[in-house]
Amino acid sequence: MENRIYGYARVSSRDQNEDRQIDSLRTLGVADENIIIDKCSGKDTQRDGYQYLKRQILRSGDTLVIKELDRLSRNKSDIKHELEYFKEHNIHIRILDIPTTLTDFPKEQMWIMDMINSILIEVLGSIAENERLKIKRRQKEGIEAAKKRKVRFGRPEIPKPENWDFVISEVKSGQLRPVDAMKHLGLSHSQYYYMCKKFNI
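^ thats the sequence. predicted structure below, dont judge the formating
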């Protein structure tokens, strides 16, 4: 059975662009159809694309390519766990920001590569985790500062339409369907039912 090569890319939010990572994966010979992308946080490894790649696609002898170590996770213990998993399942991992993982050492020198990679992974894993904690701290400080400025969080308040009482009376009497009431009120489906709940309709 032919050994295959897959790539994994991750960005933290849907408005971020993964092109830089994908271009790098292509340079190592990963075909576009073999690149799995997640758009979510790296706080842990519970991501749909990653878990599908790991559990359903990758098999012994395959190679997984990622651009940076923190694409796996920003949690150091998770990074170590995932790398151990790949090693146990004979899945080769290539990390572009750790050049030694891109080198094929002779079998008798594999211990040298393992030692170098372990040191680099420890350092880079710590950097990734510290970056995650720094981001969390900044978010917390930002929220606290916003609260002091009395900034409101959550769903913005929807103003009650001027014709609300009349339109709702028509709905209650059966003269108007809810879908038509939404049009008259200028409300979306979710806004209409949010208002109904708010006013106990």
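The mean pLDDT is 81.
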